[in-house]
Design brief:
Order of helices and strands: HEEEEHEHEHHHEHEHEEHH
Largest sheet: 6 strands, mixed
Radius of gyration: 18 Å
Distance between the termini: 31 Å
CATH class: Alpha Beta
CATH superfamily: P-loop containing nucleotide triphosphate hydrolases
Structural class: alpha/beta
Strand order of the largest sheet: 6-7-8-4-9-10
Shape: globular
Strand content: 15-25%
CATH topology: Rossmann fold
CATH architecture: 3-Layer(aba) Sandwich
Helix content: 25-40%
Number of strands: 10
Number of domains: 1
């Protein structure tokens, strides 16, 4: 997703409209941040999502774990309002994905969707302005975020001059500039070193502690262990959902990776399609 695509996606998210749809609650008490029911998304003959059903509770970190082609990115892009489901129902913060929900959603893409020639600070201010923030408010928020992600001193550095890790940090800051209630992270640590990966997860934990709900896709099993709950995704469906401890206990394994293989094997033996 290049910068222009990201700009188009964010620019069409205007000021928050009135709340639509019903409020969704877990056990009648806790509002759901995300509810997906029987979601199908096809691309020609390819069925990227095949009846996926999943809920994400407000205030939790939920990890989506699965191999390439499992449907993780397609699902995240659907939640962000960039794709429409072919069938099924999706609710994000009690609304259908789109302009009204997007003002409360931050989306961090796999590859940094930034303006290469603009300095770091100007990128943040630009995206803040797209979400209706005043220039002064956007600059103040950008300064706070650059401190949070340890990029103080890099404000005037063009994005093209940043290291890969710093680009990811800038990408994260841009996704958070409008103070989203829900953060969608699509493999945010892919291709970065273990030290920076740990740093990013420390930032995610801080955001979550402050009340941000996070959905994150990952191939890294150590990252899955940091999530409150994990959804194992395969062939466009959720094949198992639970805490890391629950999934390992149910599969009688020591790791999430082994648990995935067990659950996938059960699904195959049961003849699910």
């Amino acid at each position: 997703m290049g910068p222009m695509r990201r700009v188009v996606a964010f620019a069409r998210y205007g000021p928050a409209g009135r709340r639509i749809g019903r409020s969704l609650r877990v056990g009648g008490e806790r509002e759901l941040a995300i509810e997906a029911e029987g979601v199908v998304r096809t691309f020609g003959h390819l069925r990227a999502l095949d009846g996926l059903s999943l809920t994400v509770r407000r205030g939790e970190i939920l990890g989506l774990v699965g191999p390439n082609g499992a449907g993780k990115t397609t699902f995240v892009r659907t939640l962000a309002g960039l794709l429409r489901p072919t069938a099924g129902r999706v609710s994000v913060l009690g609304r259908a994905p789109g302009p009204r929900a997007a003002v409360d959603v931050g989306y961090m893409t796999q590859s940094a969707a930034l303006y290469e020639d603009l300095p770091v600070l100007d990128n943040l201010v630009f995206f803040g302005r797209l979400f209706g923030m005043g220039r002064g408010e956007a600059r103040a928020r950008a300064g706070d975020l650059l401190a949070l992600v340890d990029l103080k001193g890099k404000e005037r550095v063009p994005v093209r001059a940043l290291s890969g890790g710093m680009r990811q940090l800038t990408n994260l800051a841009c996704a958070m500039v409008h103070r989203p209630r829900l953060l969608l992270l699509d493999e945010p640590t892919v291709g970065i070193d273990p030290v920076l990966r740990r740093r990013l997860w420390e930032h995610f934990a801080e955001l979550n502690a402050a009340g941000t709900t996070i959905l994150v896709t990952t191939h890294v099993m150590e990252e899955a262990e940091r999530c409150h709950r994990v959804a194992l995704i395969g062939a466009g469906r959720a094949i198992a959902v639970g805490t890391p401890a629950e999934l390992k206990a149910a599969a009688d394994t020591r790791s999430i990776e082994e648990a995935y293989l067990v659950f996938w094997g059960r699904r195959t033996r049961d003849g699910a399609s």
